[in-house]
Amino acid sequence: MDCAKDAAQIERAAQTAGIAPDAVKVSAATHIMTLTVSEARLPEIEEAVATTGYGFDRIKDGEDIQTGAAHQDPAYRRALWIVVLLNVGYGLIEMIGGFLAGSQAVKADALDFIGDGLITFLGLLAIGWSLVWRARSALIQGVFLGLLGLGVLATTVWRVFTQTMPDPTLMGVFGIVALVVNVLAVLLLMKFRKGDANMRAVWLFSRNDAIGNAAVVVAAVFVAWLGNGWPDLLVAFAIAGLFLHSSWSIVRDAKADLATAG
């Protein structure tokens, strides 16, 4: 998984099999799904979760949690490294662009890129680590990303009272390039997906990022049309809010995993 939105999607898929919300938890920190159900229900749940396109393995009693075989494929790992560089690299570029354009929406979108890239990076770095160390790393990362999100929210609130007109042309350019970067990341990982369900997963879990990119472009159009910065600020609040929710989910899951391991 590359973000907490993925974990939420998998949880919802499990619930379609008739599982109560409090009986399933998917940790974005450690990529583990925990179920509190009878073993007879597992085949039904596995079938429901398979529709997300994610592969999974049952963890045996007393077994240390390791990454699945897919992550051992050198070509797949190389693709993930490229995705990390694309996300973090363009996120930093877009953050600079946000300051140049005077756009809070572009800055918030950049934060989402950086967050997804760092989560993928953590997953690569932590291959073979124990549950405790993966949870600790995720906790630190979740707190860090949360602070970044709060920073964007704070500066956006400040901009409400000291509004300046963002550059709609630069906003649109950075939003369109962001869409292109997302498409490149999808194409890199597409060949490692198998079957119709997995192809659908690539779309589902890239869609939210693409919506954020498109929202920046739409905000740029409205800024140019209306001649004020409110569309930019509204999109910034929405993107930063979604990102903070993901950050909170990572921290929550990491703390729960640490408590379980303890």
Please describe what this structure looks like.
The chain is mainly alpha-helical and 262 residues long. The protein has a single domain (70-261), classed as Alpha-lytic protease prodomain-like. It has eight helices and two strands. The protein has a two-stranded antiparallel ribbon. Helix 3 packs antiparallel against helix 6 (168-190), helix 4 packs parallel to helix 8 and helix 6 (168-190) runs antiparallel to helix 7. The longest helix is centred in the C-terminal third of the chain and has 32 residues, at 195-226. The protein is elongated and about 60 Å long. It starts with a helix and ends with a helix.
Beta-strand residue percentage: under 5%
Task: Report, as a whole number of angstroms, the end-to-end distance.
Answer: 24 Å
Largest sheet: 2 strands, antiparallel
* Secondary-structure-derived class: mainly alpha
Blueprint (SSEs and pairs):
Layout: H1 4-15, E1 24-27, E2 32-35, H2 42-50, H3 74-101, H4 104-125, H5 131-161, H6 168-190, H7 195-226, H8 230-261
Antiparallel strand pairs: 1-2
Helix pairs in contact: 1-2, 3-4, 3-6, 4-5, 4-7, 4-8, 5-8, 6-7, 7-8
Task: Give me some keywords for this one.
about 260 residues, mainly alpha, 8 helices, 2 strands, about 70% helix
